[in-house]
Design goal:
Layout (H helix, E strand, L loop, with lengths): L10 E2 L4 E6 L7 E9 L2 E9 L8 E2 L4 E6 L6 E8 L6 E8 L4 E4 L7 E2 L7 E8 L3 E8 L3 E9 L11 E11 L4 E18 L10 E5 L2 E6 L2 E6 L3 E3 L2 E16 L4 E25 L4 E15 L3 E7 L2
Parallel strand pairs: 13-16
Antiparallel strand pairs: 1-12, 2-11, 3-4, 3-6, 4-5, 7-8, 7-10, 8-9, 11-12, 13-21, 14-21, 15-20, 15-22, 16-19, 17-18, 21-22, 21-23
């Protein structure tokens, strides 16, 4: 049995051709299952995956059909298969989920064969088929331990939007005599970082993301995009902090001083590729590639300008 897959057998006979229908090595799970029945046998099976693709037709789309669509992170808590009563075909499939849903289809034999559902995540089926489902067995992932995603932003910051000038405060000073003025203050700014990817988020574990964070920094008196050092993050983070300024000098009689405090805001939507590593409680690991999008808002440190108008 492939690594990370529960070792269930198949129920039915030995006719037809062997099939192994799964995309678990690409990170996809079963999103929808359609089963056809006719008499006491299952005639056909087709799957839709969480990556948006469909399986090939297994068996034949003949007779009456029934379908079931899994919700995000919905898991099987029980699955039962039956033969056709004479050991030549698979005749029945039923399962229950952790969200209170159930599926039952087929009029086969009376002997129940309970499958090991492992983690509960259904990732495909194996068996034998030609014009019917000769034999059938589910492919479930083993119990999970962790999910990690290591991000590669490619050629970032190429294509990143220019930072936006944000005025924080202004103040004017003037008078008929010389005095020292002081322009100071602070503003609260909230930075946000979100790494979005569909397949890694389909598991019922918090995804740990290893990535740098797009940020703004001053390089040779110019605010430019850069990346922080790579570290481990949750998929969605935010942080509020104070950015402050304090500048002072002297105004002469008849002179006017105009002060502005400002910062730069950077808003980014960056496509990335990631290597996702799923670790099972058995110690086995599964790796696959997945695209994602980083969305974030960040701010530079506060800066000030001071303009003097002569008397």
């Amino acid at each position: 049995m492939a690594k990370g897959i529960v070792g269930n057998g198949t129920i039915g006979g030995n006719g037809g051709n062997h099939f192994w229908e799964t995309k678990y090595d690409k990170g996809a799970m079963v999103e929808e299952i359609i089963v056809w029945k006719e008499g006491n046998i299952l005639r056909g099976l087709k799957l839709s995956w969480t990556d948006g693709s469909d399986s090939t037709m297994i068996g034949k789309s003949s007779g009456s059909s029934q379908s079931f669509t899994f919700k995000v992170k919905e898991k099987c808590t029980e699955m039962v298969l039956r033969g056709n009563g004479i050991g030549t075909r698979c005749g029945h499939i039923e399962f229950k989920t952790d969200q209170g849903n159930s599926f039952s289809w087929g009029d086969g034999g009376s002997d129940n064969y309970y499958m090991d559902v492992g983690s509960g995540f259904l990732v495909g089926f194996q068996g034998r088929a030609n014009l019917d489902i000769d034999s059938l067995g589910p492919l479930f992932l083993k119990p999970l331990k962790s999910v990690h995603s290591e991000v590669d932003y490619g050629d970032f910051p190429n294509g990143a939007p220019d930072p936006t000038h944000i005025t924080l405060d202004t103040q004017d000073f003037d008078g008929n005599h010389e005095y020292e003025w002081d322009f100071h203050g602070s503003k609260t700014k909230t930075t946000t970082s979100t790494w979005s990817q569909t397949l890694a988020s389909s598991f019922d574990l918090q995804v740990k993301v290893k990535a740098g964070v797009p940020e703004l920094a001053e390089v040779e008196s110019t605010i430019k995009w850069g990346l922080s050092a790579s570290s481990t993050h949750s998929q969605a983070e935010q942080d509020s902090s104070e950015i402050g300024w304090d500048v002072h000098s002297t105004v002469s009689p008849g002179q006017t001083v105009h002060c502005e405090a400002y910062c730069f805001q950077g808003t980014s939507d960056v496509d990335y590729t990631s290597t996702v590593t799923v670790t099972f409680q058995s110690g086995e690991t599964l790796q696959f590639k997945e695209s994602g999008t980083f969305s974030g808002v960040t701010y530079s440190e506060a800066k000030t300008t001071v303009n003097y108008t002569p008397p």
